[in-house]
Amino acid sequence: MRIEVENDRIRERKKQEYQDLVDEMDQKGFEANLEKISIKTANLFGIVLFILVSLIAYPIYYLVNGRIDPALIFGFEGTKGMLIFFGAYLVSIFVHEFIHGFLWQFTCEKKWGSIDFGFNPKTCTPYCHCCEALSFGRYFFGSIGPTLFLGIIPIILGIIFKSLFLVSFSVLGVVGGAGDLMVIFSLRKHRESRLFDHPYEVGYAYFTAKNGD
Fold it and tell me: Mean pLDDT over residues 187-191, rounded?
């Protein structure tokens, strides 16, 4: 496992490691293809997702628990509630990436040795990168994890335990997985391919047999 702050040297190393993998897969009879995700489209999808999930989660909360107190939508009243809420959300951004790595390492031959965590100063965002090409099921497993554990499951728990804070927090957890969900949706086209989390593009590489089999 490597933990790093991205810079030009690290970006060049990533490019070289990716090219080495492409060359290795080429020798095995596979060619590399790139499936890119548009950041603009992902952001628009995130907005749509926020509206849809809110329109589902809050009415169900109301039907199950009988009331919604707008003053407690962040868990606490006033500025304190907002600060706690958004502080927790900022921490969850890093947890999101950790969940990717934690789940992917179970499927990797080198376990944690194939997982990189880092922070990109240019975009002010953390990231996780899996350094092995994985089968469809293994790649899907690590990709869906953060949306499940920070979004869908906590929404259900928030409704059950009458926690409006948890529901609101988890709605953003689902929205934070918008890019992951776009990746997952695109995976249906590459079920038979080996999938590789692209180290410097927004998206992933998929390796297909040169003869089309």
Answer: 90
How many angstroms separate the CA atoms of 133 and 118, rounded?
19
Phi-psi category of residue 75: left, alpha or beta, with phi > 0 → left and psi -120 to 50 → alpha:
left
**Residue 4: left (phi > 0), alpha (psi -120 to 50), or beta?**
beta
Single-letter residue type at 60: I
CA 99 to chain centre: 8
pLDDT for 212 beyond 60: no
Cα distance between residue 179 and residue 143, in whole Å: 10
**pLDDT surpassing 60 at residue 56:** yes
Answer for the pair 195, 205: CB distance below 8 angstroms, yes or no: yes
User: Tokens 């927790």 label which residue?
Assistant: 88
pLDDT reading at 130 higher than 90: yes
Neighbours of 192 (CB within 10 A): 11
CB of 175 within 8 A of CB of 45? no
pTM above 0.70, yes or no: yes
Question: For residue 125, what are its two tokens?
Answer: 């965002």
Task: Please check the confidence at residue 175 and state whether its pLDDT lies above 60.
Answer: yes
> Using an 8 Å Cβ cutoff, are 152 and 177 in contact?
no
